[in-house]
Amino acid sequence: MSTEPVAIERNGDTLDIVLDRPDHGNRINAAMSAAIIGAVSNLDDTVKLVRITSSSADFCTGRESPMPPPDAKPSAETLRRVVAAPPLALYDALKAVPVPVMAVVRGRAIGVGCALAGVCDLALAADDAVFQIPEMERDIPPTLVMSALIGRVPVKTVAHMVLSRATLNASEALQAGLISRVVPAAELDAQADGLAATMLTCSAVTLRAVKQFLHLAPEMPAAGASGFAAHLAATALSARF
């Protein structure tokens, strides 16, 4: 276990981010968020993969929101800056990582934890993992979490999770498109290592081309996406000569 709430370490061509706050359900706090943003925003060109895991039984059970006390009567702008901006910056930083980002999910992925799984390019989950967006229980619209999922998870799935506050098991999360694969809990780490090893056989330029296409092509018209595909393939192939 790290002495810090998040352990960030370069292992070969992989940047490993380990949520390491087990006594708090790996809830994200401001320091953890800032550390992750700093790490993924300054990758050198040799990094091929970013992997987000947890050190304990739960992936992430939410975040510590810096809500002002009720008698403070904060302005909407203060709430936007203090409460809303930090998680949005984290989601945007992960979306902007130029190489694939993989989440390895065990246990509970609640609120921000659910958003982290959804915002990653790949998410492997143990068969006992569960996913929930419970903010409406406190009469809070979870639009920040929703912003991480929209465009990656079907709108009706997001609506159901938010409005019903239902807990999805791993199989339901897979069917909903929130995660990419379910594996037996005892095999989660080995399966994640195997997938990482497969990806790492490719060059950084190839992996970056794939990430760029996944990130940008869905918003392009068909003709533009085709031209972008040709450009990325040619650029990656030219790096071999």
Question: What descriptors fit this protein?
Answer:
241 residues, alpha/beta, 2-enoyl-CoA Hydratase, Chain A, domain 1, 2 domains, three-stranded mixed beta sheet, globular, Enoyl-CoA_hydra/iso
**Which strand order does the major sheet show?**
1-2-3-4-6-9
CATH class of the largest domain, named: Alpha Beta
In the CATH hierarchy, the architecture of the largest domain is Alpha-Beta Complex
Q: What's the total count of β strands?
A: 9
Main sheet, how many strands, which sense, barrel?
6 strands, mixed
Q: Write down the overall geometry.
A: globular
- Termini, distance in Å? 44 Å
* Count of the domains: 2
Secondary-structure element string: EEHEHEEHEEHHEHEHHH
> Which runs of at least 5 residues are low in confidence (pLDDT < 50)?
none
Q: Give the overall average pLDDT.
A: 92
Bin the strand percentage: 15-25%
Question: For the CA atoms, what is the radius of gyration?
Answer: 18 Å
Helical coverage, percent range: 40-55%
CATH superfamily of the largest domain: 2-enoyl-CoA Hydratase, Chain A, domain 1
CATH topology grouping of the largest domain: 2-enoyl-CoA Hydratase, Chain A, domain 1
